[in-house]
Here is the input.
Amino acid sequence: MDAVEVISDGAAAVAALDPIRARLLAELRVPASATELAPRVGLTRQKVNYHLRKLEDQGLVVPAETRQWGGLTERRVVASAAGYLVSPAALGAAAAAVPARAGHSLSSQYLIALAGRLIREVGELIAGSRAAVDPHPLPVLALDTDVRFRSPADRAAFAAELTDVMVRLAGQYHDTTSPQGRWHRVLVGVHPVPADVIVGAPTEESQ
Here is the structure.
């Protein structure tokens, strides 16, 4: 099971966004049968089976095991990932948000457009890597931290210094002549923490 799966197909996105099926995907972080799931979600076993088939058709649910109970065979399934993100690609032409057209670097629309492009492009790279005859890990890097600025002036100074560092590093390592070189995107985003999020609180992963 992957930690996160990027959904780029529109039909798969529709299946995952259905409230009942989304609940089933959450329950299926561990293998379960329709009989086990039915009381958890308040549906009959037959209805759970119907929704599971729809999810399985989209590759969001996969077989886990079969067990024999007397003369009956119980089929258990599991979600393909522990969590999901819907790629802008699932929206087709409606998702054509180009960062360069979304505003300047201090625009929230620009940040969202960059984040959408990140999900779409990395999701496509993951899918391509899985389909390769000899798959290799993707050369990626992610950094994440929280900063509490004393004032808007400090935040502006931080942004200026961060920009200077990015420009210097890009100039130091950028090389358009090497035949072995490969283009990489470097994205840095800064945004306020939502009021209902407690920074430093235990997360699901740390519990």
Observations:
- Residues 108-131 form the longest helix (24 residues).
- The mean pLDDT is 90.
